[in-house]
Amino acid sequence: MMITSNTMALKEPDYVNMNVTIRNAMTGLIRPEIVYRCQSKRKDYGWHRSKKPGMQFSFPIILIKGESKIPAIHICNIRSVLGTATFVIENTYLDAEMCPKSSCAHVATPKGIVFRGLEWDFKTVFPKLKPVEYLELPWTPWPNRT
Fold this sequence. Notes:
The protein has 146 residues and is mainly beta.
């Protein structure tokens, strides 16, 4: 008597999805509105407007697993009444593992662009993810008009 079984090994996908999130936190201003645009080498996500604090915009990116040295590079321009900020977001496969489900965000505040997310803490014997918040880029003031 012979018993055969047709089992299929589930293969892990070769890519991972990640969302890049930009959030408005311009509290305490008469005009808390921000306007922003993000683009990569292959895609332009267009201009978006966030009129109130608390509004956010997320756009998906796809990263190749195992390619921790090949980043997905996006250039984002943000404008507000306080000025402009242009910054570069570089995400790798490891970043996607640290920031699941849009848990990491680039937040527009009155001080500038703040990163809120998770980073590895190597001060302990077993590294673990810890929440961090730091100023990425201050606002560049608008030029004076005479």
